[in-house]
Structures
1.
Amino acid sequence: MIALTKMRAVVRVLCLLLVPTVAHAERRMTIVGDVMDTRARWTADGTRIITEATIQTPDGDVVVSQLGGSVGGLGMRTFPGPELLQRGMQVSLDARADHDLSQREHISVDGVRVTGALPGFVRTGPTEAGKYLFWESGCVFVTVDIAGTNQVNGDNEFDTVDAAIAEWNTNVASCSFMQLQQTARLASEVGRDNRNLIKFRDTSWCRPATKDDPARCYSPSAAGITTAVFVDDATSDRDGEIVDADIELNGADFAITNDGQTSGTSSCRSEISNTLTHELGHLLGLEHPCLAGGDPPREDGDGNPVPACSETTDPEILEATMYNFQDCGETKKASLSPDDIDAICQIYPTEQDPGVCAPVGKEDGCCSSSSSPVPSTLLLALGLLFGLGARRRR
């Protein structure tokens, strides 16, 4: 996922400090404490997983919720996105009180900073068993929302989507079986529906509210975000298999641009080709090549510790399409680097071609369903299907 980075960091030190936001009539707050319990659930319409956590603070227990989690053998995460809360974490949370469509109040988590861990806490991998994510089929079908974007003339954005898909398909064809396939464009919304959607958001950088969950808004520094649903079941041989992945592009905080042309008014431009090519890497199962602030430790494909973005000058990292950050108006990520190509060829090598190219079915036998100014740089959030952070991460 690609994100635009906001350069100003705000440090909050008060527990449950409420800051009213007049525009949305919502209460902003910082919550500092220990995660004592978590519970994940599917929303009533079955399109998203929500994790509710009990935070023990000096002023009493507070129940918060965030987008993502694992239920019934399926996991869901957003890339980029805040760290998923787990029992044993000591955290400082940026949160807000908001309402679902039934007017019930929820305290939604917008940002997570892990400050420590209670004794015995162990960080886990992408699945409960630490399995890296992957697609089972020899191809991945993607669908573009028919509305496109109003910030680009005519239907030019669709041609650029085609080009971004072709960039991946063409460059990995000699060493990998994996190919991206497009289905007919249609009007749709993101969510777990076995349709891998590419959606432009021109006005609101939020996943809409449902009957029993409020709108889930993303970091305004993210130019793009990828959300994946995957099998999260240590007893299954399908552990880590992706069953749904959606890409969203931010036209609310950035000017969505096609070849430098846009009707968007933001001072920071996000080129479709640059942002989308990065997000498609997340959809395929790739993570950012360096760690932004708050990221958990990771290893690269060679088993080496992934360095902090602030501490690396390695051109293979800085020039990769999957690098966490991008500059306003940047276009270089539209062309894959050797590192990006090698990653797909190692995950999906030609000799392991399953010989099947099919979309994930509805009934696939898989488990039960069920305030700073715009920064001068774009942050692309990537990471094994997920999306961009602060500073210059993409």
2.
Amino acid sequence: MRIDILTIFPGMFAGPFSHSIIRRAMEKKLVEIHLHDIRDYSTDKHRRVDDYPFGGGAGMVMMIEPIERCIAALKAERAYDEIIYMTPDGDKLNQPMANQLSVKKNLILLCGHYKGIDERIREHMITREISVGDYVLSGGELPAATLTDAVVRLIPGVLGDETSALSDSFQDNLLSPPVYTRPADYKGWQVPDVLLSGHDRKIAEWRHDKAVERTRERRPGLLDG
């Protein structure tokens, strides 16, 4: 998979992409992540990428030209499955969406800033709009990093245990069951006996029952699915 991220702050991705699972995925050549500074595509001598909105109002708007030039340059090199704009009013990111995107080959993620991007980019170039929640952040970089992490960890070979992602919360419209590790007895706090029994069927049943119980208590709406 290849992911191209368009941003005016490429340095914000140094931390999230330099550690843990995403770093290992890149080292294994399972994913390529390329950062593109939108300012490099500005024709303004000061590399300006924003301007005042037509009609007035507070805030600035990201200009159409630098974004269009960047996307056009990338599309001239390869076909993209999705050109995604990270925006609070997009479809809310969930596990089925991450599953779907994980089998794509080439993705573009556009990070907005200020009051947003010129609407014509959304109308003519964006194929999908995604939100990470009903709140506003300073820009699309953190949402783009979140989406990248959610997708990359699902690529075969990225996780050490191929079945690990299949048991994550939300994969079956259920939250994950409780998990435990050694020691089995810590200050009198005991691990459930069934998990120490070695009986695979009973353990699987216990985990499913606990997942349903936890989902019913914390996120009952998931059970409607």
